[in-house]
Amino acid sequence: MPAVDFRAEDFLGRIQAVVGERYVVTDASEIDHFATDHRGRYHGTALAIVRPGSTAEVSGVVKLCAEHGVAVTPQGGNTGLCGGATPLTNRPSILMRLDRLNRVREVSPIDDTITVEAGCVLADIQAAAAGVDRLFPLSLGAEGSCQIGGNISTNAGGIAVLRYGAMRSLVLGLEVVLADGSVFNGLRRLRKDNAGYDLKQLFIGAEGTLGIVTAAALKLSPAIKSRTVAMVQMASVEDALTLFERTRKTFGERISSFEIIGSSYMDFVLKYVANTSMPFEQKADWYVLIEAGEANTGADLAGAMEELLGPALEGGLVSDAIIAGSLAQEEALWRLRHGVTGEFKVAGKTMSHDTSVPVSCQPEFTQAVEKGVLEAYPDANVMMVGHIGDGNIHVVVLFPHERFADAAAFDAAADEIDAIIDDIAIGLGGSITAEHGVGTSYRKRMARTKDPFELALMRRVKAALDPDGLMNPEKIFLPTAH
Amino acid sequence: MPAVDFRAEDFLGRIQAVVGERYVVTDASEIDHFATDHRGRYHGTALAIVRPGSTAEVSGVVKLCAEHGVAVTPQGGNTGLCGGATPLTNRPSILMRLDRLNRVREVSPIDDTITVEAGCVLADIQAAAAGVDRLFPLSLGAEGSCQIGGNISTNAGGIAVLRYGAMRSLVLGLEVVLADGSVFNGLRRLRKDNAGYDLKQLFIGAEGTLGIVTAAALKLSPAIKSRTVAMVQMASVEDALTLFERTRKTFGERISSFEIIGSSYMDFVLKYVANTSMPFEQKADWYVLIEAGEANTGADLAGAMEELLGPALEGGLVSDAIIAGSLAQEEALWRLRHGVTGEFKVAGKTMSHDTSVPVSCQPEFTQAVEKGVLEAYPDANVMMVGHIGDGNIHVVVLFPHERFADAAAFDAAADEIDAIIDDIAIGLGGSITAEHGVGTSYRKRMARTKDPFELALMRRVKAALDPDGLMNPEKIFLPTAH
């Protein structure tokens, strides 16, 4: 809680002394811009936008915030899908943008490591890795503008998790500014380190609620020199899993993506997304996109793909298949899969989900979701797309713009559909948020579906690291009465 | 602290009512046996050995311990190298053996998961995975007797970390009994789950100080169908790293091991370890053992290995090379590398280290260690062996049995040599315990070398989860005055 004698102007003056006057922005329209989330669903506010230029400055700002009882919402590229980087508290707060911490501190190809500051844009890190003939494998729709600090704080997923794991698997070390402004310097570049608790794990996926990630030492992988991309069509999710099993036998860990697209999602993409066309003569219920790659230039991966898909075609497991013969064809196939948030807004009102279940439960999950949602809303367009190799299906339920009388009616329907999908996921041992995190959007649903003991344990961790609740307040957990 | 009216017999009677009389062992010689660590360096004691048969029984026992103020030291196969599973506290305590929790609860090849109880022996889990044509990749010297709960609690490493990561990377979900006896049920089998803090990470590598792992959902990998094993000899650690770089280009993620053996370690093995013989005509300063494997039966990995090593031989990077032509030859090469703890005891007095540094720093590390130790102790036999692909070198310093007048003189020398090696490691951004953990042995060295702020943060986590300090007391941290 703020001190009784809190005066914003005194406080901001002290902040200016730390970061410089020009990096404390109090212009209302600029605050409004950055205090609105990527999807435009949340509109927050803050005393100021503060843009520190170094870890020491982050520390200095957070120390002042702790002293004055001011909350801090850290923000990277503001591309998150759950309102996790939007300042939505009624307490005095600042919005801390990390974009000026954008140095690549070190790249070491021998160590397969890169050490970067939190504000580095993901695509720039990918490029820095490629510059030393390495791969930084995290890849997702927003890679051109999202920042690595946000990727770490949300344990970002994307299209190569199957092979390389999510963000957590790529972090070797972290530097973090804690709630009292002290700096945890865990920026080690070690493959193995069992010297006590692995504290960095606490901050990965914590969405800035336990501290502010300022820098990270990340793992690189061998650059991919040979690649093959294919798309197939098939009748069922079961068949997709059978093909997944065969694909693992053929490619081992070299499968980097195994993605599924349902027919209504494919129809949507073909209708709304520019530069897309149907690669097959016939339609099918499901499409699978497969990518495999390896470090060795000599590998005949396309040949291996043919050996995989030939028998699958002959045996009727897949009804048609296309192996990309050029980079342009690879890109054309990937365009059918990639994120289409903007197009959803044009097409209607959507409710998006990010569910995971054990890989083998996906046939049951997809059937139960379609049945459950259509029983409640027969006019819903239930689209599915996702990372079937990871057990992570995104269900997108689309309605015409005019379907609901007002926002309240839409929200009520969304709550109902959320509950249908969440209950199916939880019943199968799944998660209601596989890769997007909790932020603001998923708090109520998490509170409803999570074991209360597990939630209480999370709050205990939060209290231990941020006793005054100043770090990204009111995210992940619903506010409790004080 | 125990209640003032604590009576061991009343307490143990209540424990018997939970687990059954026969599973509460108070026989002094049996307690003595299990309260002595694997290396025979620590001799502890306990009120009793308690062997619960289920998670509910673990919970019941821990609840009673919390009520009576009795500490709990959990123990798996008792194969740890740091005295982490030895009850060494002066407080009333029990030694909890998890060996009766030894069920494989579920194996799912489609999901690539296996769900096991904490007392399952590692080799049995490997066998269960092989039974469904999968690989559970954790592999280490003690695999025939160590238990998975211990592997998880120590974040075990071993010989395949390069490819598959350490234990932490293999854990999808955990079930843990906390200090008050409550059960954290995080036994999910999901590849992706960002629903709040990833609490299981807290317990991996915490050595039982935050709770007792009772079960785990683990990741499986494709079974290895083609394999190649080679050994080469070379003049320097730099050359080994050059070969490592080329090996990564050739095999990508298919390298499962890249291990180094120094000449004096090789001499030691050839002299003391049964069934070993020198595979080369000449001696060399360093030997590297390489293993690559893949899921595809058709792969010509031996051919790829020849293409890798041929030019290396011609160019003089390696002075000799042997590619195993049979399983027997593969095993013979691996025998030169595997753990030799027993033989050390026969040969003399040893001081063993488990250091990691960034991969590129290993030439500097090995040279500085040899120089530093030999300057202080010119008669020392400084042997080196380790996982060079992970930056993890084990330095073993050997002296003749009669070298030190008494245990105190040995301990003083060990402290001095520890400090020499630790300072070099820390100076290079390394860790003084890469894969063995802290337990009892490394506490003093960790307290000396670790950032006090980081240590304090670890204690804060400990206090949040185990406020009364009943979980494996006096491990990881040196006791503080109360």
TrEMBL record, chains A, B:
It comes from the Bacteria. Gene3D superfamilies: 3.30.465.10, 3.30.70.2190, 3.30.70.2740, Uridine Diphospho-n-acetylenolpyruvylglucosamine Reductase, domain 2, Vanillyl-alcohol Oxidase, Chain A, domain 4. The keyword Flavoprotein applies. The keyword Flavoprotein applies. InterPro entries: FAD-bd_oxidored_4_C, FAD-bd_PCMH, FAD-bd_PCMH-like_sf, FAD-bd_PCMH_sub1, FAD-bd_PCMH_sub2, FAD-linked_Oxase-like_C, FAD-oxidored/transferase_4, Oxid_FAD_bind_N. Belongs to the FAD-binding oxidoreductase/transferase type 4 family. This is FAD-dependent oxidoreductase.
